Amino acid sequence: MRTSAGRGALFVPPLPPAVVELAGRRHRRGELTTRLLLQTRAFAFVEGYELRRRAGRAGIHEDLARIRPENRGFAYEGAALAAALADLTAPRRAPGPGDPGGRNTRLGNLLDGPGAGFVHLIHVGAGWSAAVLPWRAVRRRLTLDPMLRWLALDGAGFARGFFGGPRWIRRLADRPDREDPVQAVLRQGVGRSLWFVECGDVAEIGRQIERFPPGLRPELWAGVGLAVCYAGGCADRQFEHLQALAGKDRAALAQGAAFAAEARRTAGQVPAHTEVAVAALTGVPAYTAANWARDSYELARAVGPEIDSYRWWQREIRRRATAAAG
Asked: Which of the residue ranges 11-25, 32-46, 124-138, 264-278 would you say has the lowest mean pLDDT?
């Protein structure tokens, strides 16, 4: 994926649906119902990307509102990638006097109004740009929330895992654990991508994660938990298998589930598949798990916006999940 800007004109390339076709990316085919569902989510991402790429600033939220509620978050995620690429490749300008926070950008416009309900997905989608552009540039130039910007790093991990596929993920597993918080968050995105790359094949996901150094496995399970609960596609019989494979990392799996619950609640709709999955992976109702995420987020914000605070936020959710499990 490339972007180019010349003679003052900005170009964000089209994203054909074929780019995200699961069957064509050496991803596992999985069960038909799971593959069709995850494919629908991926196509919603492309639809949102194309809407933002082609649209002017006015009307983007109205366009996205026409997408089914359960897929709308994915569409906002795709729209965020298009907005981020446009902002990153535009000539740099200092914020005007009426826009000290830099909100007069394509990404800032997307975050305004109805976009506030999809704040988590927008940050994740903006992070996809870090799969093709340096993370430092993404972090420095985009209009991101001081704490939620680390979700963009998760998004970069997802994009790399999704497009790199099983072989790339296996090569990544061979790298040593450097106890780097940036790499830990990146692996969460890779874990989330595993749900798509392996098309919901729980046993194969477990085998992939076992290849990683032990210190990074909780982060991968956190990503899996988020994907399972947000995207869906997990059969009832698979939840116990997921928890058994996660083993001592069940709290990380639950933390990802809590993130999904909060993202869905913020958007104003918690679909049935999220309620079922969150309850199965946390042992509490989805709204309780969402409260774990929201309450500990406010505590983390009070500490500061750096990645250590973001990581504290996640660890606090895991602590609450462990306490709830007894």
From this structure: 11-25
Q: What was the pLDDT predicted at 1?
A: 46
CA-to-CA dists, residue 53 to 2, 50, 68, 88, 135, angstroms: 14, 5, 20, 14, 22
Half-sphere exposure of 142 (CA within 13 A, CB side): 37
Residue 143 maps to a domain: yes
Give the number of other Cβ atoms within 10 Å of residue 64's Cβ.
Answer: 24
Residue 260 maps to a domain: yes
Q: Whole-angstrom Cα distance, residue 94 to residue 302?
A: 28
Find tokens 């929201």 and name the residue.
Answer: 294
The DSSP result for 269-297, as a single string, is ---HHHHHHHHHHHSS-HHHHHHHHHHHH
Residue at 2 is within a domain: no
User: Percent of the chain, pLDDT > 90?
Assistant: 80
d(C-alpha 136, C-alpha 159), whole Å: 17
Residue 52 forms part of a structural domain: yes
| Exposure on the CB side of residue 323, measured as CA atoms within 13 A | 8
Question: DSSP string of 95-140?
Answer: PPTT-TT--SSHHHHHHSGGGGGGHHHHHHHHHGGGGTS-HHHHHH
Dihedral of alpha carbons 291, 295, 300, 305, sign: positive
Q: Is the dihedral of CA 308, 166, 206, 274 positive or negative?
A: positive
- The pLDDT confidence band at residue 303, using thresholds 50, 70 and 90, is confident
Instruction: Note the pTM of the prediction, 2 decimals.
Output: 0.94
Rounded Cα gap, residues 258 and 268, in angstroms: 15
In the chain, the number of structural domains is 1
Determine the structural domain holding residue 148 and report its residue range: 10-91+102-325
What distance in Å separates the CA atoms of residue 316 and residue 255, rounded to the nearest whole number?
9
